[in-house]
Design goal:
- This protein has 5 helices and 7 strands, in the order αβαβββαβββαα.
- The chain is an alpha+beta fold.
- It folds into 2 domains: about 70 residues, no CATH class; about 100 residues.
- The strands form 3 sheets. It has a 3-stranded antiparallel sheet with strand order 5-6-7. Strands 1-3 form a two-stranded parallel sheet. A two-stranded antiparallel sheet has the order 2-4.
Length: about 180
């Protein structure tokens, strides 16, 4: 969630993109308490994230929330796979009977490959996604402000995808 001011951010955690999917921890039900955290951790132009540090988290609270640049936010938006039968990151290719990897990176989305099977395309997605995460980590480390919790979470995300790829396991979700 992007907000220009402390009050916008605080109101935003109560409204959210889908209020039924998230809630606010007791620590932040008071604006004064939220403002103290905001003043210490907010970075202008960055996005408040509630589930990078703890995947699947639905509660806005100081232990699991962090501010991240847009390029990381876009990279980690995991979304849900299409309702089709293909693995995460796989779409039908331009040629009949072919499959491609659809990769969200810090600079947007791109389609790569012309694979014979959905499994090959998923392995390509895993490889490219892990590389994109590595690049984002290197970029984030150069930021004037960064949070070690974000770096740890990104490395765990990277390592999970790499481990799945090397062990021929489909990456269905991210958790650590």
């Amino acid at each position: 969630m992007y907000a220009k001011s402390d009050i916008q951010a605080w109101v935003g955690i109560f409204e959210g993109d889908n209020p039924s999917d998230s809630n606010v921890g007791d620590e932040w039900k008071s604006f004064k308490s939220f403002k103290t955290w905001f003043d210490n951790f907010q970075v202008s132009g960055w996005v408040l994230n509630k589930d990078l540090i703890k995947p699947g988290n639905t509660t806005y609270n100081p232990a699991t929330c962090c501010y991240v640049p847009h390029y990381i936010h876009e990279l980690i938006i995991y979304g849900t796979p299409d309702k089709g039968s293909y693995p995460r990151g796989v779409i039908t290719g331009e040629s009949p009977g072919k499959f491609a990897a659809h990769i969200k990176t810090s600079s947007g989305s791109r389609v790569e490959g012309s694979c014979d099977t959905p499994e090959e395309a998923h392995k390509l997605w895993q490889l490219k996604k892990a590389r994109a995460i590595s690049s984002a980590i290197a970029r984030y480390q150069k930021e004037a402000s960064n949070d070690d919790r974000v770096l740890v979470a990104l490395w765990k995300f990277h390592d999970k995808i790499e481990s799945d790829r090397k062990n021929n396991i489909e990456t269905t979700h991210y958790s650590h």
